[in-house]
Amino acid sequence: MPPLSTTKEPTPAMNPKVPMLTLTNGVQMPAIGLGVFQTPPSETRDAVCAALDAGYRHVDTAAAYGNEREVGEAIRDSGLDRSEIFIETKIWISDYGYERTLHGFEKSAAKLGVEQIDLLILHQPLPSAFELTLEAYRALEALLSERRVRAIGVSNFMAPHLATLAEHATVIPAVNQIECHPYFQQRAVQTANTAHGILTQAWSPIGGITFYRDSGHRSALEDPVTGRIAGAHGKSAAQVMLRWGLQQGRSVIPKSIRPERIAENIDIFGFELTDDELVAIDALETGRRAGPEPNAITLEAFGREIPEP
Predict the structure, then answer these.
(1) How far is Cα 256 from Cα 34, in angstroms, rounded to an integer?
(2) Domain locations in the chain?
(3) Annotated active-site positions, please?
(4) Which residues share a beta bridge with 59?
(5) Hey, which residues does 253 pair with through a beta bridge?
(6) What is the pLDDT of residue 162?
(7) Does residue 211 carry a pLDDT above 60?
(8) What's the predicted TM-score (pTM) here?
(9) What are phi and psi of 251, to 5 degrees?
(10) 262-272: per-residue pLDDT in tens?
(11) Which of 58, 80, 227, 275 could pair with 30 as two cysteines, CB 3.0-4.6 Å apart?
C-alpha cells in the first residue's frame, strides 16, 4: 500500500506569535496547544473553534476523551488549511498490541476526518503488560515509516518506562506528555526525557486543577507566589504558569472551554519572567501527583472499549 499523502510542513508563519518547537525528526510543532481533556463532545467544537480564532494552531485530543470527531469538525469548519493545524491524539491502553494499535489509528483518523495525524502518542504505559506497550509502540513506528503519522511519542511514561522502551525501539519518542505544573514538576522524568532527546509536554500546566479535590492541595491559580508575579507583569496567574513552562523549554497544553480564557492562555508572548521569578515558581514543588499513578494503570481497572467511527 503506498503511503498516504502528507501535509505540508508547518512553519512559524502559521501564527507568528507562537514559537515552534522542532522535534527530533525535524517536524515542527507549535509550543502551545489547546487540550480538550474532559471537554464534553457537545462543547468541544465551540472550544476548538474559539481556540483557532484566537490563534492556536495545535489541538491535543485522545481516543479516550470521546471528542475526536468534534475536534475534526471544528478544524474543517475553521476555513484554515489542514497544513496549518497540528493535530495530536493518543491511543488508549485497550487498543495496545500491534494490530489493535494500527486499528486504533484508523479509528482516530476516521473520527478526526484526516488521512495523516501530526503526532500520535501512547496515552499511558501499561506496566502490568508492558509487552503490549512495546507492541503498540512498534505499531506507531510502522505508521511513522508509512508516513501516516508525522511524529510519534508517549504520555505519562516515567524514567524506567522510557529506559525499557529505548532498549526495544528503533525510533525514540519525539514527545513525552506528562503532568507538569508548579506543584508537581517531575524533574526526574524531565531529566530522563532530555537524556533521550525527548521533548517534555505538560498536561494541566496551570496546576492539575481537575484533580485538586482528590490531591489535597489548593489551586496554583490562588497561590500567593504566582499571584505576586502575575501582578508584577500585569498578567494572570495562568499566564505566568504557562510562560514558566515555555521559558523552561516545555510544550504546554492548557484546557478551557471559555473563549475569554482560551484567548488569555495564548496571550503569553509579550512578557518574560526573570530568573528569580522562575526559581520562585520552581520552589512551589509539593511532590504530590494530582493525576493517576502511572504504575497503577491496568487493563482491569482502566480498560474501556474505544468505539468504532
Answers:
(1) 8
(2) 27-217+241-270
(3) 65
(4) 34, 87
(5) 203
(6) 98
(7) no
(8) 0.93
(9) -85, 145
(10) 999 999 999 99
(11) 58
pLDDT tens per residue across span 11-47:
434 676 899 999 999 999 999 999 999 999 999 999 9
Grid-cell match 476548538, residue found: 48
The three cell numbers locating residue 228: 505576586
What single-letter amino acid sits at 116? Q
Three-class SS string for the chain? CCCCCCCCCCCHHHCCCCCEEECCCCCEEECECEECCCCCHHHHHHHHHHHHHHCCCEEECCHHHCCHHHHHHHHHHCCCCHHHCEEEEEECHHHCCHHHHHHHHHHHHHHHCCCCEEEEEECCCCHHHHHHHHHHHHHHHHHHHCCCEEEEEEECCCHHHHHHHHHHCCCCCCEEEEECECCECCHHHHHHHHHHCCEEEEECCCCCHHHHHHHCCCCHHHCHHHHHHHHHHCCCHHHHHHHHHHHCCCEEECECCCHHHHHHHHCCCCCCCCHHHHHHHHCCCCCCCCCCCHHHCCHHHHCCCCCCC
Q: What type of residue is 88?
A: E
Distance CA 148, CA 3 (A): 7
**Beta carbons of 74 and 52 less than 8 angstroms apart:** yes
Q: Residue 220 and residue 206: Cα distance in Å, rounded?
A: 7
